[in-house]
Fold these 2 entries.
Entry 1:
Amino acid sequence: MSTRKALSRGKRTGDGLAALQHLQCLHLVFCDRITDIGLRSLSRLQHLRKLNLRECCKIADVALQTLATLKQLQYLDLSRCESITNAGLKVLPPCSTCSACTFHCCDKITDVGLKCLAELHQLQCLDVSGCDKITDVGLESLSKLQQLNDVNLHHCSRITDVGLRSLAALQQLENLNLRACREVTNAGLESLSSLKQLRRLNLCSCNRITNAGVNCLAALQRLQHLDLTYCDKITRAPVMKMLSTLQHLSELKLSSSIRV
């Protein structure tokens, strides 16, 4: 019997899923008629480890009460479930086995919600890209999750250098996406230079960064992927110096105005 099930753009409402009690992986992407009531049947799927509810637009906070009962759940994607709020995140138990959560464009989530997520002691990967109400206060909450290794803050436009000082406490961090975090400056990169495990860094459209910030990146000796597109204050010379230092760098993205 298959332990995986994928449904998309369907009219399923959750009926019948309860019979698949050995299911481990369930994708219900774009199933826009599924509601909180339909998801109640998932509480019987106690072997479920991966659940993708991306763009199931009728799902709201009540659904998270059901999901909190799934004791083996490791991966949860609620991208563009725009009715999810901080109140829903409060019901997720601290003992949850969930190690990866995606809340892309769940724009009702604020710093209060991040404080709730910081109680998920197994969390390693967090995507809150497009949650533009999140500020530095929320990142301070995350700083206690020492096992976090992947954080996506793309278009969290209120994040500043103060928040990056909090992220610098995450010494296991390998992947960090700060694309379009336009308040980030060289001071923030100086804080990030202590992240010795960092392998992937996206600074696209962080257009307050200058050559001094690029010099800070030379300390990231394990860096493999770096995106500096639309960082228009950067010039060629510091980039070339950085390239001579970062021996593991395999991918570098620059704007066309910078010729290497």
Entry 2:
Amino acid sequence: MSPELSDEQRNKLSELLRKFSGLFTKTDKSTAAKTNVKHRIFTGDHAPINQRAYRVSPTERRIIHEEVQKMLDEGIVQPSESPWSSPIVLVRKKDGSWRFASIIAS
């Protein structure tokens, strides 16, 4: 914690971190924190947007497959047959690792 925090602020922050500890990952390598929250996206009567995947190198394809498999294994995502889709994009981070992203059509 920041040394600039008062004792009262430190105590409040510690209390919040303990209260919501289940929302945080245990290591940096975990894909995301798991929660029991189910999300639904209301799309009204908008027709589904289905964007094709971008061409990627064999290395990028392997990374995408590994990341999707990791999210499936961790229960973060589940298989879907939805008519909605958007392409996956890999962005290289400063440390050389990859950030897994998606481009959402507007």
